[in-house]
Amino acid sequence: MGASCKDQKKALAICLQRSPCVLIERHSPKDCLTDPKLKKELPELCVANFKAFMDCKNGMFDMRKRMRGNAPISTGKYDETYDNLSSGNFNAHDEMKKLEVLNRNLSKQRLLQEEQERARQAGSLSE
Fold first, then answer.
1. 42 burial class (0-12, 13-18, 19+ CB within 10 angstroms)?
2. Which of 8, 14, 11 is nearest to 70 (CA)?
3. Is pLDDT above 70 for 43?
4. Which of 6, 51, 62, 88 could form a disulfide with 74 if both were Cys (CB 3.0 to 4.6 A apart)?
5. Which residues contact 100 (CB under 8 A, 6 or more apart)?
6. Using an 8 Å Cβ cutoff, are 74 and 6 in contact?
C-alpha cells in the first residue's frame, strides 16, 4: 500500500480499537468489519473512516488520479495514538469517551450539512 493511505488506515485502526465491538465484546477488528451483524453496530465515525480508507485504496487504481497522486502524503498525525493503542498503553474508559465525543461531533456535522442542503433546495424551488 502506498504511503498516501497510511493516515486513513491508522485512523480506522484507532477508531476500531476504541469501539465497543473490540473493547467490550472482545472481537477482532477484522471481525467487526467483515461480519454484517457486527458492522451494523459500529459507531458512525468508524464507518466513515472505513469508507475513507476504501476510497483511498480504490483511488490507487484510478487512472484519473495516477498523474497527480491519490492523496496527500501521510502526515504521521495518528502515529502516537496508534502506537499507544497497539501496545495496550491506554485507559479503555477514556478511549470510549473519546470515541463517543468524536461520533457525536460527526453526527452534528452531518445534520448541519443536511439542513443546509434542504435550505438550498428550498431556495432553488422558490425561484
1. buried
2. 8
3. yes
4. 6
5. none
6. yes
The residue count of the chain comes to: 127
What's the pTM value of the predicted model, to 2 decimals? Answer: 0.64
Say if residues 106 and 45 touch (Cβ distance below 8 Å).
yes
Closest residue by Cα to residue 99 from 57, 49, 52, 54? 49
pLDDT of residue 1 exceeding 50? no
Render pLDDT for 67-116 as a digit per residue (tens, 0 to 9).
Answer: 665 555 566 677 778 787 778 777 888 888 888 888 888 888 888 888 88
Ramachandran class of 27: left when φ > 0, alpha when ψ lies in -120 to 50, beta otherwise:
beta
Contact assessment for residue 11 and residue 83, using Cβ atoms and an 8 Å cutoff? no
